[in-house]
Every structure is written in C-alpha cells, then in structure tokens.
Amino acid sequence: MRHRFLVVIPVADRPLHIQACLDSLIELLRRHPCEREVRVLLADDSADPANVAANRALAARYSAAGLPTLHFGPDEQFDLVAPLRAPLARVLGDAPRERFGHKGQGVMRNVANLKVIDFIEGLDDDVLVWSLDSDQEFRVNVATPHGEEIVYAVDYFRDLDAIFSRTDALVLTGKVVGDPPVSPAVMTDNFLIDVLGFLRRMAGVSPDDACGCHGAGHRSGDAAYHDMADLFGFAQDGESYDYPCPLPGPHTQADCFTHFATRLNGFFYGEHPTRVSSYEPAELFATVQPARTVYAGNYVFRPAALKYFIPFAALRLRMSGPALGRLIRAELGPRFVSANLPMLHRRTLEGTGRSEFRPGISQQVAAIDLSGEFERQFYGDVMLFTIERLVAGGTGSDAFALARVAATLDAVRGEMLERYNARQGTILGKLAQVEALLSGRERWWQGRPAALADFMAFVANVERNFGRESAGYLRINSSETWDDWRRRLVDAVVAYPADRAAWEAALAARMAA
C-alpha cells in the first residue's frame, strides 16, 4: 500500500454522532486492516463547552485504543487563523474567540485544511486527506429480501489507495447511502407523494391484516429523493415509493401504520423513510469516472489539492460542495473523479428521531421551523447554478467579472424563484389530499389517536414551512431580502480570484513555517 491517510472530521455539538463514526472506523480497521498509518483530525466546531470537552475526551480514548486522533478545538483554531483573517474573511469567517463555534461546515473545513499542513511534508507527500461528516459511518446498507442490513462491505482504504496509485486523480468524491445528503427543503414534494400512496394503501386494507409492506422492497435511484432532480440531469417518474416496513416478526397493518407515523417528523431532520438509497456493489475501476459534484461529507484529495477551499464559506450556504465541484471540474477535468465508495449517512439518532445538532432548524415541542435552512438552501441553489454558468468556459478572471456575475445571478435567481414557487403550489395541493384522507371518519386509523396525532403534527409542520405565509417563502420572495443577498453574493463571487490568491499565499506561508 502506497498511501497514508489523514481522516478529517468536522463536528459541531454531536458527540454521539462522532462516537458512532469513530466506532465504525475502529471496526472497519479490525475487519480490513490498513498497512499504512490512519490518523484522525477531529475539527471541533461545537459551541457548547461540554461538547468540546466530550469530543476531546473521545479523541484521547480512540488514541489510546490505537487510532491516533487529534482534537483540534475552537481555541487552537482561533490562534491558527487569527493572523490570516484580514485577507481571508470570506474563507475563514470573522467570528471572535468567544464565539468561535458554529462557524459552519465550510469555514470549519477551510480552517481544518490549514491544520492539515502539519501532517504532510510538501505537496508531493504520500498522504491522502479524506474529509467527511460526523453523521456518517464507515459501512454501508444493502437491500435484502428480508429488509435492510448494515454491513462492512467496502475496504475503503485499500480501494482509495488503488485509485490514487493507478490514476493521476487529484480529487475523488464518493457519495452517501442511507439518509439523503440534501435538506427537507427540497424533498417535501416527493415525500408527500409517498405519504399519499401509503395512506391510500392503508385505506384499502383491514387494520388486523398481516403487514403487507414487506417483500417487494423499495426502489432507489440517483437523486430519487430530490424534488428538482431534473436540475442535476436525473429523470423523475413522479411515482409513489413504498414504505419498507422494518418491524420484525408477525405484525399487522395497524402496527406498520403506527410505526410509520412515529417516523414522519424525523423527515424534518433529514430522514426520508421511503427513499433510502442502498449500496450496490460493482467492480471498483468500472465506477471511476469524471465528476462534477463534491460530496463535502465524503471526498479525498492529494495534498496538492489543498489549494481548493470551500468557496463562499462565510455565507454558510447549502450546496457549497456542488459549487466547489463545478470550480474543480473547470480546472481539473478528468483528474476530478467519482467512485462507488459511499458511506452510511444517518441524520438522526436511533431512538430519538432527531439530529443532535442541525444549523438552521429550530424546534419548540412538536413545531419545527426550517426557515433558516430553507433560505440557505434557496440561495445555495442560486449560487451553485450561477457558478456552473460562469465557469462553463473555465475559471479565468473574465469568468468573475462584475457585470457578468451580477447579470447571471439575477437570471438564475429569477429561474429558481419560479421553480420554488411552483413547487410550493404542488406541495400544498398534495397536503390538502393528505388532510382529506386523514379526516375521513370511516378510516380505521381514527381509533389510533397517537398515530393520528403524529400525522397531524407532520401536516402542521409542512404547512408551517411550505404554506403561503411560511417564513422561508416570504423571505425568498422579498425584494428587500434579495437586495441584501444579491449584494453579498455578487461580492463573494467577484472576490473569488482574490480569495484564491490569498489562500494560496497562506498555504505557502504555513508550509514554510
């Protein structure tokens, strides 16, 4: 084996998630020993001092267990970046020391990449840097006739070493299986299709019948969970996906109904109970192909690719990985690749149905407010497709000229707003159908008040976040809000070449120190 590995994991107030992630890494290495060193850089973006302490203790514990793990805490991060932030505020943020947690995944990855230099010896070193998310695990799910199984089916380190040894790839991105890598802000329409299909199916059976949601399994496909998959070149069939009931042993349709009801509101934390993607084995090199999107929670690069930071990080937009991917593709072409090396993605904790921490989501009892994440998703989409158009001919300085940037942003924002507003109408139409099915007094689920309450809480949360008066939609349709975002987006894109120059100068200074 040629390469050593540095696994970089940003974590923000998720000690349980990061523990599951590192436990799976320990088990992977037990099952598939790596001939070269594997080290972990735990980049802590927590705001709660108790969680910072918990993550530091976890790093010490895993190091003692034989997995060298460095905890890189907020104070150490601030000391590292403080001298660099004047020219790199859009890359590293400008938070003061006392509020140096919750900087956002983009800023945190950029700060962590400055620390990566301490682990390499020049840009031709034999280290591969693997950046991932704390809510992922080093294993995959597979669909079987008896339901989903979680397995250690991928020898990640061997496969990555092989790809980077036999090709000149500079950056490789994997994907995720399990929970989708996108926000519920762009999954609600197709989930309502599946909820309607489930309710109609249940309406045609007896509650005491044996559960019929097993056996056939559920289908999956690229971006099947995404309401606007066509934007990314994927077909949409508009069909209902079946719920794959996970309950073991003999049970009834009523049991399945009740279980599905308990999972509904996990959707707002990023689960998609009906469109869970599964791992499909394939010959490794047959899956290596040119890429266009960086999955920020699962990408690997040679040290020379440290020059590619997460763009526009201080704006805290969603879709920053795909935007980075468009920039990298424009410069690297076939040296930016993807491969069938997914990781298991679990948005929520088992037993709670909630994530430990999700930025942009607020919850008060059963009420969930997605407006912060919704807004970051909308303007993240605007930024992504603006960048895609700007760099279609390359990343020369004329790609980021002020007049071109402003005109492209205006055009893309208009197109995306039309799509989002049209989708709001389809969401509310489907929601009305769900309410009609639930209100029928003859329906047998009326005798199950807890399950019905879960469904009605789901309906209320969809209405709250996608209704005519929802905060998210009001903000993206506000001309005043757009004026503010337009100014920030234009400034960030026009400044990208200068940020690149300042970033490369900072890397050079760090390597020379």
Describe the structure in your own words.
The chain is α/β, with parallel strands linked by helices and 513 residues long. It folds into 2 domains: 288 residues, Spore Coat Polysaccharide Biosynthesis Protein SpsA, Chain A (Alpha-Beta Complex); 160 residues, no CATH class. Helix content is 43%, strand content 12%. The strands form 4 sheets. Strands 3-2-1-4-11-8-12-10 form an 8-stranded mixed beta sheet. Strands 5-13-9 form a 3-stranded mixed beta sheet. Strands 6-7 form a two-stranded antiparallel ribbon. The protein is globular and about 75 Å long. About 3% of the residues have low confidence.
Give the ordered list of helices and strands.
EHEHEHHHEEEEHEEHHEEHEEEEHHHHHH
Tell me, what's the shape?
globular
Kindly state the percentage of residues in helix: 40-55%
Text of the CATH class of the largest domain:
Alpha Beta
Q: Give me the CATH architecture of the largest domain, please.
A: Alpha-Beta Complex
Secondary structure elements and their pairing?
Blueprint: E1 4-11, H1 15-31, E2 38-44, H2 49-64, E3 69-72, H3 74-81, H4 89-92, H5 105-116, E4 127-132, E5 136-137, E6 140-144, E7 147-151, H6 156-166, E8 171-173, E9 176-178, H7 188-203, H8 253-263, E10 289-290, E11 298-301, H9 320-332, E12 336-338, E13 343-345, E14 362-364, E15 367-369, H10 371-390, H11 402-439, H12 449-466, H13 471-476, H14 479-494, H15 496-512
Parallel strand pairs: 1-2, 1-4, 2-3, 8-12, 9-13
Antiparallel strand pairs: 4-11, 5-13, 6-7, 8-11, 10-12, 14-15
Helix pairs in contact: 1-2, 7-11, 8-12, 9-10, 10-11, 11-12, 11-14
